[in-house]
Design brief:
By secondary structure, the chain is mainly β. Helix content is 5%, strand content 55%. The protein has a 22-stranded antiparallel beta barrel. Strands 8-11-12-9-10 form a five-stranded mixed beta sheet, with no helix packed on it. The chain has a four-stranded antiparallel beta sheet with strand order 3-2-5-6, with no helix packed on it. The longest helix is centred in the first third of the chain and has 9 residues, at 2-10. It is globular and about 80 Å long. The two termini are 46 Å apart.
Length: 718
Amino acid sequence: MCKFYLILFLSTIPTAVLQAQTKISGKITDKKNHPLQGVNISIKDAYDGATSAADGTFSFTTDVTGEQSVFFSLATYQTQEQKVNLSGPVTLNIILRNDISQLKIVTISAGSIEASSEKNNTVLKPLDIVTTGGAMADIVSALKTLPGTQQTNDKEGLFVRGGTGYETQTFIDGLLVRNPFYSGLPDMPGRGRFSPFLFKGTTFSSGGYSAQYGQGLSSALVLESQDLPERSSYSLGVSPIGVSGGLDELAKDKKGSFGIEADYTNLGPYLNVIKPKFEPSVNPEIIGTSANFRRKTSATGMLKFYGYSNWTHMGSIRPSFEYAGDKELFEMKNQNVYTNLSYKELLNNDWKINAGVSFSTNTDRITLDTVPKNPDPMKIHNLSQLAQGRVMLTKNIGNFSALRLGGEYQYAVENAEYNGYKANYTDNYSAAFAEGDIYFTPQFVGRVGGRMEYSSKIGKMNLAPRVSLAYKLDQNSQVSLAYGDYYQKPEQQYLRFKPDLDYMKATHYIASFQRVANNYTLRVEAFYKKYHNLVKTSPDTVTNGTGYAKGIELFWRDRKSVKNLDYWVSYSYLDTKRNYLTYPYEVQPDFAAKHTFSVVTKYYISSITTNIGLTYTFATGRPYYNPNLPVSQFMSQKTIDYNSVGLSVSYLTSIHKAFTILVLSVNNIGNFKQVYGYHYSTDALRREAITPNIPRFIYLGMFMSFGIDRRQETIDNL
């Protein structure tokens, strides 16, 4: 079936047409004739373009012919459009004027940390992620410094606005990623699988997100992969716990590229020095490989492929909580493969197509044993596979408005085996969506849409309306409102045994104020979320759970007040309760803190080309279940407050003509005591605090890039 969809998809891609190359060159200055560096030059609806050099000059070639529009844009300057006839070489001398009185159009912002242009972008760039102290270059760890997120470092996933980690979905080029995290051990969740440098765009939507995306009750993390590299390069990474290497090869015609990467990680030597809380049963090992391919199919078309495979082997031995003197073994082998093929093209009559197919498979082989009490260990084998296809058509209407129509199909296989007992199922999921961005005026926009979904496993269809409004108050400020219904299938472990479960549902209401000036960002957002049909497992597994989440969030970022200093502050107030799983009534769940606060600072010392990042995070205590208390006091006790300070130091240099970064990263540098909850024995007489297996992790590494000296590029983006 997967091969059929792949062949069908590829058959729709037109063959590239060979055309003569036309050269466009020139110089860009301001009105005082000073050269402007870093101006983005692009042909409308094409991938061809360039960036101006320090002296304001630029030069690039294109396959596009005939009369075209060339755009010139730079932060704090008015974007200029120049009509040209590409029948031969073109020379352009452009003067950009300061953007003082130009009216900027309003953008949809409720729930999403995104913007319409680079100059007011609040999205975390790849360098933002890798230089965030304590994030260890992990996308999700960096996102936990933004408002709406929880510091649930004992649980897998991104917990947003009173939602579980399962309620946040990750998308790459519009396609769902079924297993975005490494498989972890009990109370030791895996980090994200993907490098931040794979992506040119990151949109973190903490609620009220677009009808393009579904099956996430709380949040959507939307990642857009990189296009063609500027030139060929090779990389090498070395650290005490592993090595990595890769290459990115740009074709001679600069219309295509391919890349491969491989990495190996072994935490054994590190754990021999930094003793963990629990003894490893094997030295944790990770082997990863990836490949990518990019090709311009025409002046406006792009075909992209990304494939990733990963093998993990790890395990822990801890004292048995039930049987004094015995030990509990948990050992896991994981294999994960993810592939993504996407295609973009400009069609006739100002229509655009975005299409893609994806296939992924994830296998967990788990061994559970009580040593030496149990002579027959439990063997668990889980297999998840997902094949999907997606098509979206976009029609620009007028200068700003747009219409989006699309559909997607997913075929999911979920197999589980417990000591020979099997619990398997498959699901055919299909969805269609329609959405329009309607600009009533440049200051007032509405986004109206809906999504229809059907799951063969549940046997029901749902319809999810979504509406957003935004109004621009002045040049830099706007207010936004959003409403929407969001549905999601129950987790796989429940659908395996109860096929008659219904969709879970959440309804979002959001109001926000945003002010984005040059190098300043202020966001204040209030939200209310109502839950319906959550999964209850006691006394029987049904979908009649309820809940709510409401709160207010603040985000402030300043990149100007102090030279070479970039910092942001985020605060979240969360009031949430839910009645789900074994809960007897609505209470604050064990993953939710009422107050969360983060300060992220990054300071660049130009004299020694070094960036220092420092992050402080605070969260109030989370509820936990004490079986010794009566039902009336269920989840009434809380853990101690959470405190953490993370450090990141990056030194930029060159070694034998190779651009090199030396990195030191430390999380919980203050060695704060962190307690996430408690485990109780079956008889409720003994308890154990859930704490980090390694209270403080220290990472030291060196990364070298051959072929491109990225020092200035890196410095400019710090």
